[in-house]
Each structure stands twice: as structure tokens, then as C-alpha cells.
Amino acid sequence: MRLDFHTHGKLAKKLPFSTAYTDWLFGEARRAGLDALCLTEHFNTLQFTDVYGYIASVSRRTGDTLELENGLKIFPGMETDVAEGGHILSIGPLEAILELNRRLEPNKEKGCFLSFARLMDLFEEYPVVVGCGHPFRAPGHVPELPEEQLRRLKFLDLNGKDLALDQARTERLTYALGRRLDIPVVSGSDTHQAVQYGCVTTVFERECNTIPALYEEMREGRYAIRLADTAPFQVRTACLLKRSLKEIHALGGDYVAILTREATA
Q1: pTM above 0.90, yes or no
Q2: 20 to 30 A from 143, CA-CA: which of 69, 84, 177, 210?
């Protein structure tokens, strides 16, 4: 099972949700060779519940995943900011993710983010697996937290964007922290648009469609991380594409129509 642990279903969190854009993303994810992905959408993205409501309406429930018609399995998730600086990834059943997002409503603006400890207290009330996204990306400070807090994490994200920018540093620091905490290191592309899919993937020996089964495979180390030779090019191109599409939107253009027209031309 080829899985991407860190993905987004929108171009940017302040842009309106587009079903056509999300459909295009998931089609491209499948074409990039993914069997499954964790949709770790920003917890304070515009229309968070609409994103999952739409996906649920066009998929069938398979264990804890939402399986699309093209065979792509989506593990629901969320990426949450903490007051200390940094991003925490949570993966779990759809109902748990939606309820967590509702409970975090008062904490979605900068200056109101929960501390790491309070966020972990909240997550521990739900059947979710929690890790740190791109732990060594500035201005995050999660690795500087007390040891007893860090040991509440269940995994670390070896992030595709960071690998593309500085592979040696990202691998050295992330794996060292994983060994120190004795937790798995898995990988995600951190993509907001399709060209970044496949830059890095986590390839499991077995198929999984429940959170407990996935976490068991992670803990037992029955997976391998595959970094594409083209990762630096993919990430640079994706960054340029994101900036260009946001500018099209800001100027009143329809970036979704442009993308989907090109895809079907």
C-alpha cells in the first residue's frame, strides 16, 4: 500500500472549497501511484466541514477510510497549530476528526492556539493517532518541548517539502528525534496541489483500512519510505504553481476551470 501521510484537499486555507479542484487532486493522486492518503487538512481552513461532507458523499466507508470510485482510500485527518509554534497531525475516524474540529473552533486564530499539552489532552479523548508534522521546519518549536510531552507523540513526519529543500538535515534531525522518542518516522508530501504527489511516499507491506491496523504496521516498521529522484523539481514546481493559481484567484480568474480544462483537453 503506497500512502502519503500529509496532504491537503484545498489550494490554500483561505480560499473557498471547490469540489472540482478536490476531485482533480484525488484523480491526480491515483495517477501518481497512490493507493491511499491521509487528508491532514488545516484545522482552520475555510469550510473544513464542507470538505469532509463532500468527500463522504462521493465515497464509501471502508473501515475507517473513505474509498473513492477510483480506488483511492482517504484516512481522515487534520493539521493543527500549537501555541509554541509547530503543526500537529491527527488521523482518525471521520466522526472523531469532525468533532475535534468543532471543539477547536475557539482556537482557530493566531493568538488563540492551544498549547501542545492542552491539545494532546484533547486528542487523547478520541481514537486518533497523533504525530508532529515537519518538526524541524522554522518557526516550529515542538522538538524543544519537555521530554514527557514529546513522548505523547505517536509518529513523526519526514516531510517531502523539507526533504526537497535539505534532505541531509531533514533526515538527520527527524530520524534522531524518532530514535530518541522510540516512535515511527513516516513520510508525507505536504502537497496542496497535484504535482507534488509522489515526491515521497510510505510503502506498506500490507493493505490497511482502519486506524488501529495502520498504527500497528507503523509501530512494527513494516514499511519503507521512497523519495523520488524528482522530488526537488516537484516541490519547486508545486510552489510556483500554488503562487500562480492564488494570483489568478486574486485577480478574479477561475484557477479551477483552468486546471480542469487542461486536464481534460
Answers
A1: yes
A2: 210
Give 38: exposed, middle or buried? Use CB within 10 Å, 0-12, 13-18, 19+: buried
Cα(94)–Cα(21) distance, integer angstroms: 21
Cell readout for 185 is 518516522
- Convert the pLDDT of each residue in 1-20 to its tens digit: 999 999 999 999 999 999 99
Cell numbers 493507493 correspond to 35
The CA-CA-CA angle for residues 21, 75, 98, to 5°, reads 85
Task: List domains and CATH numbers for the chain.
Answer: 2-264 (3.20.20.140)
Give pLDDT tens digits for 90-104.
999 999 999 999 999
Q: Is 163 exposed, middle or buried (0-12, 13-18, 19+ CB in 10 A)?
A: buried
